[in-house]
Specification:
Rossmann fold; 2 domains; 12 strands
Protein backbone atom coordinates (compact mmCIF):
# COMPACT_ATOMS: atom_id res chain seq x y z
CA UNK A 1 0.00 0.00 0.00
CA UNK A 2 1.34 3.44 -0.95
CA UNK A 3 2.38 5.71 1.91
CA UNK A 4 0.17 8.81 1.90
CA UNK A 5 1.66 12.20 2.75
CA UNK A 6 -0.28 15.40 3.31
CA UNK A 7 1.46 18.76 3.04
CA UNK A 8 -0.21 21.75 4.73
CA UNK A 9 1.63 24.70 3.20
CA UNK A 10 0.48 28.02 1.73
CA UNK A 11 3.47 28.29 -0.64
CA UNK A 12 2.02 26.63 -3.75
CA UNK A 13 5.33 26.67 -5.58
CA UNK A 14 7.10 24.85 -2.75
CA UNK A 15 4.25 22.36 -2.42
CA UNK A 16 4.37 21.62 -6.16
CA UNK A 17 8.11 20.97 -5.99
CA UNK A 18 7.80 18.74 -2.92
CA UNK A 19 4.82 16.89 -4.39
CA UNK A 20 6.65 16.11 -7.63
CA UNK A 21 9.72 14.92 -5.72
CA UNK A 22 7.78 12.68 -3.32
CA UNK A 23 5.62 11.17 -6.06
CA UNK A 24 8.77 10.30 -8.00
CA UNK A 25 10.00 8.61 -4.81
CA UNK A 26 6.90 6.42 -4.68
CA UNK A 27 4.71 8.26 -2.17
CA UNK A 28 1.12 9.41 -2.45
CA UNK A 29 0.85 13.17 -2.01
CA UNK A 30 -1.89 15.68 -1.26
CA UNK A 31 -1.62 19.41 -0.63
CA UNK A 32 -3.78 21.81 1.36
CA UNK A 33 -3.07 25.52 1.44
CA UNK A 34 -4.36 26.34 4.92
CA UNK A 35 -4.87 24.74 8.31
CA UNK A 36 -8.64 24.34 8.21
CA UNK A 37 -8.57 22.57 4.85
CA UNK A 38 -5.73 20.35 6.04
CA UNK A 39 -7.64 19.30 9.16
CA UNK A 40 -10.72 18.53 7.09
CA UNK A 41 -8.64 16.43 4.68
CA UNK A 42 -7.11 14.46 7.54
CA UNK A 43 -10.52 13.53 8.90
CA UNK A 44 -11.74 12.30 5.50
CA UNK A 45 -8.68 10.55 4.08
CA UNK A 46 -6.02 8.10 5.25
CA UNK A 47 -2.77 9.96 5.94
CA UNK A 48 0.49 8.43 7.17
CA UNK A 49 2.52 11.61 7.63
CA UNK A 50 1.86 15.35 7.59
CA UNK A 51 4.36 17.98 6.48
CA UNK A 52 3.11 21.00 8.40
CA UNK A 53 4.27 24.56 7.81
CA UNK A 54 4.45 26.79 10.86
CA UNK A 55 3.19 29.93 9.09
CA UNK A 56 -0.27 29.49 7.57
CA UNK A 57 -2.80 32.12 6.41
CA UNK A 58 -5.66 31.14 8.73
CA UNK A 59 -4.37 29.39 11.86
CA UNK A 60 -0.70 28.82 12.53
CA UNK A 61 0.96 25.43 12.35
CA UNK A 62 1.29 25.16 16.14
CA UNK A 63 -2.50 25.38 16.50
CA UNK A 64 -2.97 22.87 13.70
CA UNK A 65 -0.57 20.48 15.43
CA UNK A 66 -2.48 20.88 18.69
CA UNK A 67 -5.80 20.25 16.96
CA UNK A 68 -4.46 17.10 15.27
CA UNK A 69 -3.28 15.67 18.58
CA UNK A 70 -6.77 16.35 20.00
CA UNK A 71 -8.52 14.33 17.26
CA UNK A 72 -9.73 10.79 17.97
CA UNK A 73 -7.45 7.89 17.07
CA UNK A 74 -6.03 6.99 14.62
CA UNK A 75 -5.91 10.55 13.22
CA UNK A 76 -4.37 11.90 16.43
CA UNK A 77 -1.38 9.57 16.03
CA UNK A 78 -0.50 10.73 12.52
CA UNK A 79 3.20 11.57 12.30
CA UNK A 80 3.95 15.30 11.96
CA UNK A 81 7.05 16.82 10.41
CA UNK A 82 6.97 20.56 11.10
CA UNK A 83 8.62 23.13 8.84
CA UNK A 84 10.10 25.95 10.91
CA UNK A 85 12.01 29.16 10.29
CA UNK A 86 15.74 28.55 10.11
CA UNK A 87 17.53 29.65 13.26
CA UNK A 88 14.38 30.00 15.40
CA UNK A 89 14.73 27.39 18.17
CA UNK A 90 11.67 28.63 20.09
CA UNK A 91 9.24 27.64 17.32
CA UNK A 92 10.92 24.25 17.14
CA UNK A 93 10.68 23.68 20.89
CA UNK A 94 7.04 24.75 21.09
CA UNK A 95 6.21 22.53 18.11
CA UNK A 96 7.81 19.51 19.79
CA UNK A 97 5.98 20.29 23.02
CA UNK A 98 2.67 20.29 21.17
CA UNK A 99 3.34 16.89 19.64
CA UNK A 100 5.34 17.27 16.42
CA UNK A 101 7.53 14.21 15.75
CA UNK A 102 10.34 16.07 14.05
CA UNK A 103 11.17 19.43 12.51
CA UNK A 104 12.96 20.72 9.42
CA UNK A 105 14.16 24.33 9.07
CA UNK A 106 13.44 26.25 5.86
CA UNK A 107 14.97 26.39 3.33
CA UNK A 108 15.68 22.70 2.95
CA UNK A 109 16.96 20.26 0.35
CA UNK A 110 14.38 17.77 -0.95
CA UNK A 111 16.77 14.91 -0.16
CA UNK A 112 16.90 15.94 3.48
CA UNK A 113 13.11 16.14 3.61
CA UNK A 114 12.91 12.63 2.16
CA UNK A 115 15.46 11.37 4.68
CA UNK A 116 13.43 12.80 7.57
CA UNK A 117 10.24 11.23 6.21
CA UNK A 118 11.89 7.84 5.84
CA UNK A 119 13.30 8.03 9.37
CA UNK A 120 9.89 8.82 10.87
CA UNK A 121 8.17 6.05 8.92
CA UNK A 122 10.93 3.60 9.76
CA UNK A 123 10.49 4.32 13.47
CA UNK A 124 6.76 3.70 13.19
CA UNK A 125 7.14 0.36 11.43
CA UNK A 126 10.16 -1.06 13.24
CA UNK A 127 8.47 -1.65 16.59
CA UNK A 128 6.07 -4.23 15.20
CA UNK A 129 8.96 -6.30 13.85
CA UNK A 130 10.39 -6.99 17.31
CA UNK A 131 9.70 -10.52 18.56
CA UNK A 132 9.55 -9.33 22.18
CA UNK A 133 6.67 -6.93 21.94
CA UNK A 134 6.21 -6.01 25.61
CA UNK A 135 8.51 -4.56 28.24
CA UNK A 136 7.39 -4.25 31.85
CA UNK A 137 8.97 -2.12 34.57
CA UNK A 138 6.85 -2.22 37.72
CA UNK A 139 3.49 -0.68 36.82
CA UNK A 140 4.84 0.61 33.50
CA UNK A 141 4.13 -1.51 30.42
CA UNK A 142 5.46 -0.71 26.94
CA UNK A 143 3.87 -2.64 24.09
CA UNK A 144 5.89 -2.35 20.87
CA UNK A 145 3.29 -4.18 18.81
CA UNK A 146 0.36 -1.90 19.63
CA UNK A 147 2.69 1.07 20.22
CA UNK A 148 1.03 1.85 23.53
CA UNK A 149 2.31 2.71 27.00
CA UNK A 150 0.35 1.96 30.17
CA UNK A 151 1.03 3.00 33.75
CA UNK A 152 -1.10 1.23 36.33
CA UNK A 153 -3.49 0.19 33.58
CA UNK A 154 -3.94 3.78 32.35
CA UNK A 155 -3.04 4.65 28.77
CA UNK A 156 -0.33 7.30 28.38
CA UNK A 157 -0.49 9.94 25.66
CA UNK A 158 2.75 9.98 23.65
CA UNK A 159 3.58 10.97 20.10
CA UNK A 160 5.09 8.39 17.75
CA UNK A 161 8.53 9.91 18.19
CA UNK A 162 8.22 10.04 21.98
CA UNK A 163 7.16 6.39 22.01
CA UNK A 164 10.28 5.46 20.06
CA UNK A 165 12.48 7.51 22.37
CA UNK A 166 10.98 5.71 25.37
CA UNK A 167 11.56 2.31 23.74
CA UNK A 168 15.16 3.27 22.92
CA UNK A 169 16.04 4.10 26.52
CA UNK A 170 13.95 1.27 28.02
CA UNK A 171 15.82 -1.26 25.87
CA UNK A 172 19.00 0.10 27.44
CA UNK A 173 17.66 0.30 31.01
CA UNK A 174 20.36 0.95 33.59
CA UNK A 175 22.78 2.36 31.02
CA UNK A 176 23.63 6.06 31.06
CA UNK A 177 23.05 7.50 27.58
CA UNK A 178 24.06 10.84 26.13
CA UNK A 179 21.49 12.88 24.22
CA UNK A 180 23.29 12.09 20.98
CA UNK A 181 23.24 8.33 21.69
CA UNK A 182 19.50 8.40 22.38
CA UNK A 183 18.57 10.37 19.30
CA UNK A 184 21.00 8.44 17.12
CA UNK A 185 19.31 5.21 18.24
CA UNK A 186 15.97 6.60 17.11
CA UNK A 187 16.84 8.64 14.06
CA UNK A 188 19.77 6.68 12.71
CA UNK A 189 21.59 9.83 11.71
CA UNK A 190 23.96 12.36 13.18
CA UNK A 191 22.48 15.29 15.05
CA UNK A 192 22.84 18.96 14.46
CA UNK A 193 25.34 20.55 16.80
CA UNK A 194 23.88 21.63 20.15
CA UNK A 195 20.50 20.07 19.40
CA UNK A 196 18.58 19.92 22.68
CA UNK A 197 15.12 19.01 21.41
CA UNK A 198 15.69 15.71 23.23
CA UNK A 199 15.15 17.54 26.52
CA UNK A 200 11.74 18.75 25.38
CA UNK A 201 10.68 15.24 24.45
CA UNK A 202 12.01 13.74 27.67
CA UNK A 203 10.03 16.31 29.62
CA UNK A 204 6.85 15.32 27.79
CA UNK A 205 7.52 11.62 28.34
CA UNK A 206 8.06 12.23 32.04
CA UNK A 207 4.77 14.08 32.28
CA UNK A 208 3.06 11.05 30.76
CA UNK A 209 4.68 8.20 32.70
CA UNK A 210 5.96 9.60 36.00
CA UNK A 211 3.87 9.85 39.17
CA UNK A 212 5.53 13.24 39.72
CA UNK A 213 7.34 14.56 36.66
CA UNK A 214 9.15 17.13 38.82
CA UNK A 215 10.68 14.29 40.89
CA UNK A 216 11.11 11.54 38.26
CA UNK A 217 11.87 7.96 39.25
CA UNK A 218 11.71 6.25 35.85
CA UNK A 219 13.78 8.56 33.63
CA UNK A 220 16.67 10.06 35.59
CA UNK A 221 18.89 12.93 34.51
CA UNK A 222 22.64 12.41 34.81
CA UNK A 223 24.00 15.92 35.07
CA UNK A 224 26.48 16.78 32.35
CA UNK A 225 25.92 13.47 30.54
CA UNK A 226 22.35 12.63 29.62
CA UNK A 227 19.68 10.22 30.88
CA UNK A 228 19.28 6.77 32.37
CA UNK A 229 16.12 4.66 32.41
CA UNK A 230 15.73 2.94 35.81
CA UNK A 231 15.80 -0.87 35.73
CA UNK A 232 13.93 -1.24 39.01
CA UNK A 233 10.63 0.61 39.20
CA UNK A 234 7.53 0.44 41.33
Amino acid sequence: MTIQILMIEDDDRLALMVGDYLRQSGYGFAHCGDGATGLAHLQKHSVDLIILDLMLPDIDGLQVCQKIRALPNPQSQTAILMLTAKGDPMDRIVGLELGADDYLPKPFEPRELLARIKAILRRKSSAGNDSHTKMTFGSLEIDRDSRTVMVGGKLCDLTSYQFDLLVAIAERAGRVLTRDQIMEAVRGRELEAYDRSIDVHMGRIRMAIEDDHKAPERILTVRGVGYVFAKQQK
